[in-house]
Amino acid sequence: MSGYIESFRGHVLNSQCDLMGHMNVQFYNGCISQAMATMFAAVGLRPEDMKSRERGFAAIEQSNRYHAELLPGDIIHMESGVLKSSSRTLTFHHKLFNSSTGKLSYEATITAAFMDLEARKAIPFEEEMKNNIASLTVIGEDA
Amino acid sequence: MTDLASKLINCYRGTVEAWECDQMQHMNVQFYTSKAAAAFSHLQNALGLTPERIRSEKKSLRFRTVRIQYKSEMRMGGLLHGFAGIRDVQNDSITAFIHLHDSHKGVVSGVFEFTADYRDLESGEQSALPADVKAVALSLKDEHSDQYKPAPIKHTLLPAKAMDHMFETNRSAVDVWECDAFGNIEMQPVIARFSDAASHIMKSVGITRQMQKARNLGSAALDYYSEYNQPVKMAASLYLRSGLLERMNKTFVFGHQMINCDTGDIVNTTTVLGCYFDMTARKAVPLPEEYRNVPEEQLLKYQI
Fold first, then answer.
1. Residues 6+ apart with CB under 8 A from B18
2. Do B196 and B299 sit in the same domain of this protein?
3. Where in the sequence is the domain holding B71, given as residue range(s)?
């Protein structure tokens, strides 16, 4: 489990489910959005930092895999880690579990760029953030 | 996931989205409840009431009384995590808590202390707690002396009876998207209706939105106490009847009755302890003069 941290814990509302009777794809990204807030903080960027220093992240690329559907009332949690990093980007790996059965429901990899929100361009990570990124990096078979 | 040593159940983790914040620039009360509702699902699972079991047996724990304290405001982007614990099991009722913590500040932000009973999700009828659920609840029952516990309520609570000097503060119907898979209204839209009532309460004492903005005033709920008397079903027509119970130096107490328009039944009573605050300093201010101008005899406490 090295590198992965719990990034989100919630449940599936009936209003999030579609005519197939399962959680609609858009709400998986809602879970990702929630998880990313945890990960940004873990990397070292808190909400007040983002607001005052005008720093943030922007998603560049995402791939998804749906393993097992989620039904109304299901409880869920997400574990997330860093797969790889460059001077300005992080690739996160998110795993969404059915908390009741322990089954992996969905996973996604998302590459996000660290941004200067005023200049609206990608910038290098600060030194302190690099240490945090290292501790969140998933190693070995867990990736 | 239950920590067997502390008997606390890990039940929530998430963030405050931009669209969950209201004009007071903090997370609206209804979203504390939506997060607590997610936490409640994890608590039920820990007791053996898995989502699969709830779906097949069509029964689950339902809130009967809920006390909510808003201890520390949450702003956009804030992180929250939640723990639940069982305080008592008496007959077929469970007394428990869900605490939502501000993950950055390390303080409790939202406190939910509640009683819950076991009900049929279609008929609303109460049933005995299943033996296995009761056994797990009893094994998790604990003093939780290291966890926050609210002091007893000191202010007047609104009873479920019609009174003079109450007025309408909300009128609505229950939409499909506000309900769970069994056609019962979720908790969030119940609280949303009380939140919507706040501006009508202000207007009732003579404070308009323009006046509020000019004074840089925000309003905040500090403490809610609710009794859920009946299930509220999809398409039900509802209205809120509200009134000023008490007023103090910096706080006021307002009561709401949620009424089913078809039957006239009071399906929910909620008493709110609230205050006004400076939107810049984020500190409570003296209760506006308009509240003091309400004639003493119109305070509902004298009819109780």
1. B76, B77
2. yes
3. 1-150
The full 3-state SS of A13-72, as one line of letters, equals CHHHECCCCCECHHHHHHHHHHHHHHHHHHHCCCHHHHHHHCEEEEEEEEEEEECCCCCC
* pLDDT tens sequence across A15-56: 999 999 999 999 999 999 999 999 999 999 988 777 777 899
- Contact status of A124 with chain B (Cβ, < 8 Å): no
pLDDT digits (tens, 9 = 90+) for B278-300: 999 999 999 999 999 999 999 99
User: In terms of Cα–Cα distance, which of A142, A47, A39 is closest to A85?
Assistant: A39
Q: Which of B2, B9, B12, B15 to mutate to test the interface with A (most CBs of A within 10 A)?
A: B15
Q: What is the CA radius of gyration of chain A?
A: 16
pLDDT tens for B177-234 read 999 999 999 999 999 999 999 889 999 999 998 999 999 999 999 999 999 999 999 9
In terms of domains, do B53 and B135 share one? yes
pLDDT of residue A1: 44
Closest approach of B246 to chain A, Cα-based (Å): 37
Inside any domain, residue A143: no
Which of B13, B55, B104 minimises the CB distance to A8?
B13
Structural domain total, chain B: 2
Nearest beta carbon to residue A100 from set B38, B52, B177 = B52
* ipTM of model: 0.93
Element (H, E) at B45: helix B29-46
CATH of the domain at B289: 3.10.129.10
pLDDT band at A141 (very low <50, low <70, confident <90, very high): low
Q: Do B37 and A11 touch (CB under 8 A)?
A: yes
> What pLDDT score was predicted for residue A14?
97
- The answer to whether the CB atoms of A75 and B51 lie below 8 A apart is yes
Tell whether B26 and B111 lie within a shared domain. yes
pLDDT at A53: 73
CATH number at residue A80: 3.10.129.10
Residue B193: closest CA among B218, B160, B224? B224
Number of domains in chain A: 1
At B178, which amino acid appears?
A: E
Whether residue B168 is found in the same domain as residue B263: yes
Sign of CA dihedral B291, B292, B293, B294: positive
Structure tokens at B100: 């939502």
- Are B98 and B244 members of one domain? no
